[in-house]
Design a protein that fits this description.
Oligomer: heterotetramer
Radius of gyration of chain C: 17 Å
Strand content of chain B: under 5%
Helix content of chain B: 55-70%
Chains: A alpha/beta (171), B mainly alpha (355), C alpha/beta (156), D alpha+beta (367)
Structural class of chain C: alpha/beta
Number of helices of chain C: 3
Order of helices and strands of chain B: HHHHHHHHHHHHH
Structural class of chain B: mainly alpha
Order of helices and strands of chain C: HEEHEEEEHE
Largest sheet of chain C: 5 strands, mixed
Helix content of chain C: 10-25%
Shape of chain B: globular
Strand order of the largest sheet of chain C: 1-2-5-4-3
Shape of chain C: globular
Distance between the termini of chain B: 40 Å
Largest interface: C-D, 37 and 41 residues
Largest sheet of chain B: none
């Protein structure tokens, strides 16, 4: 990733660098979008729907998404289920352990805003965007597999629209 | 002009290449070195493509066994899915764990990757399609494929992670144990051929189909089955995939590797699977021998992919063995059986009770 | 034994240690003094007619004036059910651990300790079970518990 | 060589680990591959359901308890409704009781199918996982048809069920049951006599009946250890006493028995659902209950047999519209607590198998 991060600096200076950049971007981001490996991370109800989405009827593999058990090899956390105050530091740690570029899908009400029921709970983290940056929110309690697939496709669209220069600025 | 052996089949290409090079005024030795380099590049690309294809194939077979479709959206039935995976892995950040053992951590995937490719120097892809025909060919393959275990052990140690270490240790124990039945079943073949050269092994199986070693009753089928079991273990595949047992060790030895380093392990795993299948095809299924209306390399690939397919079916059917049961199976069952088989074969050979 | 026979049997045989609170909507509820808890529990478990060998549940209760600890017992061989209740004062609530009688009580007691602040004697391992390791906001299940970031459900 | 020594080390398994079924963390003291001591750490999913329930009316508690044990959410609905009905002495119509039994048993089948898949995956076979989930979908379809949700139903309410069975439910239910019964033979063919499956499960993780009772293990795990204790028989609730079914019992208490017992239970559940469908009477599906009903003061501990074991809820009413205390008791709580007592001196892979066959589900533990 080091080289690719530096690429924009060099190519932008070239005459016609813009064209080189756009085709490169298209190729790289296409690849990223088409092979999103998700981390096997589930805490509560949404995890069961996540499993169902991986199973025969909905089949994540169609989109090129397979699960990885270790965060080092995953591109995407699908935060499925309630994140409590005890779990929050661990989620942050998992996110930190992932290799860039990394994406987060907040699946279900609990990860968006503490859930439909847990607003007067003393132990639930009210939304995971307090802990890690979120790319796509999928509402529902729990969301249906179709909406999860829709969320993943939205994320793919989002990745394709990124610019390499964004990475440059992030660094 | 002496060319690599493989050149006999690829003659026009190398004829043209050497013409071009000689017109630039390179000496004959340089031309030979460059020819080998070109051959290496061809081999490397072919194998990488095969490995990527195998990943796709594995995913499709798994999916169809599980009443799914597998990759569908990228090309016809997702044919370029794994290419996309490879490009993505290239872009991923190379996470370097702070507490790693720097040298060991870095070299583990490299050794694993290189060792996986080394075996193909002596692999007969077809009639006259071999890089170098060593007279110790099979011994050489056995030697270099074992390098993989060193790499896995290094990866386990260098990551400074307990899961990785457990995975590395398991893989060392496993590969060392299964090497013995594997070699013992290969020895039955060598015993009959009387040579360790891969070309000799293949040519001795030419003629009609019952010259294939798998049909040499009674020891041939036994040797083939024991070889296949040991080879599955050697390639770290289910039911013997304990070094990276996902449910116990998260990802085993490669738990701390990301991006391209992980891709190297991943590709090496599939190339290893292809290697052991190619060996099975060469040793027991007659190598590239077949009716001549199909080119010899196509026969070789067909037989190899047949064995690969068998290994994939096994992988998606069986549960995983436990580490002690795995060792028990190797030492208490496979080793005695293969050695008994070897003795049987020797008796048959010297009594002359074979065709 | 149906629940009336059971409550009669328990009232007779317990030598006054068990006081019937009510026969309950479904199962009889008895009261026991905190000092006699272990003795009664052992008897309930070992009595030939009762054999309460299964601790279903153990709940701590904050009624607003006092703490109650309720032991829900069942007998797997005789198909019986009974509740045993211990009433504790609000200040310095303390109870003996019943782990020696039913090992299942271990986690329930730990939970009661961390959520209600009821001290458990002879427990052996009173550590946070459900709450985060660095929790310092008191005992959340108490009725008067409040914290700065705790949003209460509005009255309706 | 004399300075060579071996050392025990600690391995942290979880809270994010593929085979801890959620967010259980176990600190293992290991000697090589052998697990010497287990110390489970729970609470990573502690959502304070009990505290929340104290601030809700009885009717509002039911959707929260859906999330208490989402794999068999119908049971959670039911057990709270049962407690509230006992507190307020509400009579439930016949039809509602039948519908409840149908739903509870269908949910038990769904949960056991999930168990089948997840256990097989934990032992290393990935294909059965997808088979199990595929048949589960056909049951989820039935639930979706009835109440519009796949996982958290809020269907069984105090006094009955939220709505009547939809048109065409009964033939579709029969069809689903027939398919499952047929496929069950396939599942058993895939694993039951598979030699690798046998060496991985037979004789592994033997849970003695005495330890099980002492630690409050219930449900299939207890019955696999030879104790015939099923609340559907021993403490009958609803209308289970009218149906004819067996309580499967096995005696070895190892992983294989726990696995087989659940497959047997699927068959019994299918049998019960068929009987309930045939006996389904006409009539009301819900008694008239005010949404803000105030049960008289008192307390009730209601318990039912769900797919994991005894699911109990202890509800105390102080005469207001909100409960004074709701304490939930999930079977998995005890199933994790018992692990240090019997799952030591096993290999790491066995621990995974034992954990899988105990069929633990974390929200039930952490609440």
């Amino acid at each position: 990733m080091g080289l690719i991060k530096k690429l924009p600096v060099y190519t932008e200076k070239m005459p016609g660098g813009g064209i080189v950049m756009t085709s490169l971007e298209a190729a790289l981001h296409n690849a990223q979008a088409k092979s999103l490996w998700y981390l096997l991370f589930g805490t509560a109800c949404c995890a069961i729907e996540l499993m169902c989405t991986g199973a025969s009827r909905y089949d994540f593999d169609r989109l090129g998404m397979i699960f990885r058990a270790t965060p080092r090899q995953a591109d995407l956390i699908i935060a499925a289920g309630t994140i409590t105050k005890k779990m929050a530091p661990r989620l942050r740690l998992l996110y930190d352990q992932m290799a860039e570029p990394r994406y987060v899908i907040a699946m279900g009400g609990c990860t968006i805003k503490g859930g439909p029921f847990y607003y007067d709970s003393y132990s639930v983290e009210k939304g995971i965007d307090h802990i890690i940056p979120v790319d796509v929110y999928i509402p529902g309690c729990p969301p249906r597999p179709e909406s999860l697939l829709e969320g993943c496709i939205t994320l793919q669209e989002k990745i394709k629209k990124q610019s390499l220069l964004d990475w440059q600025e992030k660094d | 002009m002496t060319f690599p052996v493989a050149v006999l089949e690829l003659y026009p290409l190398f004829r043209w290449l050497s013409g071009v090079l000689e017109s630039f005024g390179f000496s004959a030795n340089t031309v030979l070195i460059i020819s080998y380099a070109v051959l290496g590049v061809i081999m490397f690309s072919a194998l990488s493509i095969i490995a990527l294809f195998l990943v796709w194939w594995e995913r499709k077979i798994a999916a169809h066994m599980q009443q799914r479709f597998g990759p569908m959206r990228h090309g016809w039935h997702g044919w370029y899915q794994t290419i996309m995976d490879a490009i993505k892995l290239l872009q991923k950040e190379d996470v370097r764990v702070a507490s790693r053992d720097k040298i060991v951590y870095f070299w583990a995937p490299v050794i694993c990757f290189v060792a996986a490719y080394l075996a193909y120097i002596v692999m007969p892809w077809g009639k006259n399609l071999i890089v170098a025909d060593f007279n110790i060919g099979i011994l050489y393959i056995m030697a270099v494929t074992t390098f993989t275990v060193i790499a896995l052990l290094m990866a386990g140690w260098g990551s400074n992670n307990k899961y990785a270490l457990l995975g590395g240790m398991r893989s060392a124990a496993q590969v060392v144990s299964y090497e013995i039945p594997m070699v013992a079943s290969i020895l039955t073949v060598i015993l009959f051929v009387g040579s360790m050269s891969m070309v000799d092994i293949v040519t001795s199986q030419s003629g009609w189909i019952f010259n294939w070693f798998i049909f040499k009753l009674p020891f041939g089928p036994i040797a083939f089955v024991t070889y296949l079991i040991a080879a599955t273990a050697e390639a770290n595949r289910t039911p013997f995939d304990i070094p990276e047992a996902e449910q116990e060790l998260v990802a085993g030895f490669n738990i701390e590797y990301s991006g391209m380093k992980f891709a190297m392990f991943f590709l090496a795993e599939f190339i290893n699977m292809f290697t052991v299948s190619a060996l099975a095809a060469t040793l027991f299924l007659g190598g590239w021998n077949g009716w001549s209306f199909i080119p010899s390399w196509a026969w070789f690939l067909m037989k190899t992919f047949g064995v690969v397919f068998l290994m994939m079916l096994i992988r998606w059917t069986y549960p995983r063995l436990r580490v002690d049961q795995l060792m028990e199976f190797a030492w208490k069952f496979l080793v005695p059986v293969t050695f008994a088989n070897l003795i049987l074969a020797a008796v048959i050979k010297y009594a002359g009770w074979h065709w | 034994m149906d629940k009336d026979q059971l409550s009669a049997y328990l009232t007779d045989k317990s030598e006054g240690k068990l006081t019937l609170l009510e026969v309950g909507r479904h199962d009889p509820i008895f009261k026991v003094e905190a000092s006699q808890l272990i003795e009664v529990c052992t008897w309930l478990r070992d009595d030939e007619q009762l054999k309460f060998d299964f601790l279903c549940n153990l709940s701590g209760v904050d009624t607003g004036e006092q703490f109650e600890v309720v032991y829900q017992l069942a007998s797997t061989s005789k198909s019986l059910r009974v509740d045993i209740k211990v009433i504790l004062p609000y200040d310095g609530a303390e109870i003996e651990s019943v782990q020696k009688v039913w090992a299942a009580a271990n986690w329930h007691e730990r939970e009661m300790w961390e959520l209600y602040g009821i001290n458990v004697k002879n427990h052996g391992k009173l550590e946070f079970l459900l709450l985060p390791e660095d929790w310092d906001e008191g005992f959340p299940m108490r009725k008067d518990w409040d914290a700065p970031d705790f949003i209460r459900m509005p009255e309706f | 060589m004399s300075d060579l020594r071996t050392e025990e080390y600690y391995l942290n398994m979880g809270p994010h680990h593929p085979s801890t079924h959620g967010v259980c963390r176990m600190v293992l003291k290991m000697d090589g591959e052998k697990v010497k001591e287990i110390e489970p750490h729970i609470g990573y999913l502690h959502r304070s359901i009990e505290k929340i329930c104290e601030n809700r009316t009885y009717a509002q508690c039911i959707p929260i308890l859906d999330r208490f044990e989402y794999v068999t959410a119908m049971s959670c609905n039911y057990v709270f409704a049962l407690a509230a009905e006992r507190l307020a002495s509400i009579e439930v119509p016949e039809r509602a009781e039948h519908i409840r039994v149908i739903m509870l048993e269908l949910n038990r089948i769904a949960s056991h199918l999930l168990f089948y898949g997840v256990t097989a995956m934990d032992i290393g076979a990935l294909t059965p996982f997808l088979y199990g989930l595929r048949e589960r979908e056909s049951i989820l379809d039935l639930f979706e048809m009835t109440c519009g949700q796949r996982l958290t139903y809020n269907y069984i309410r105090v006094g009955g069920v939220s709505r009547d069975l939809p048109n065409g439910f009964i033939p579709k239910c029969h069809e689903a049951l027939n398919t499952i019964e047929k496929k069950l033979a396939d599942y058993e063919g895939l694993l039951n006599e598979n030699p690798i499956w046998l060496v991985r499960t037979v004789g592994i993780g033997v849970l003695p009946a005495k330890v099980a009772l002492d630690y409050g293990v219930s449900g299939p795990c207890l019955r696999a250890s030879g104790v015939q204790y099923d609340l559907r028989r021993n403490d009958p609730y609803s209308i289970y006493d009218r149906f004819e079914f067996d309580i499967p019992v096995r005696h070895n208490g190892d992983c294989y028995d726990r696995y087989l017992l659940r497959l047997d239970e699927i068959r019994q559940s299918i049998h019960i659902v068929r009987q309930a469908l045939d006996a389904l009477p006409e009539g009301d599906f819900k008694a008239k209950v005010s949404p803000n009903f105030k049960p008289p003061a008192g307390e009730v501990y209601a318990r039912i047999e769900n797919s994991r074991g005894e699911l109990g809820v202890h509800v105390i009413s102080d005469g207001t519209k909100k409960p004074l205390r709701v304490k939930t008791r999930g079977a998995s709580y005890n199933h994790i607590a018992v692990l240090p007592a019997f799952a030591t001196d096993v290999l790491l892979a066995d621990l995974v198998a034992i954990f899988a066959t105990m069929d633990v589900i974390m929200p039930e533990v952490d609440r």
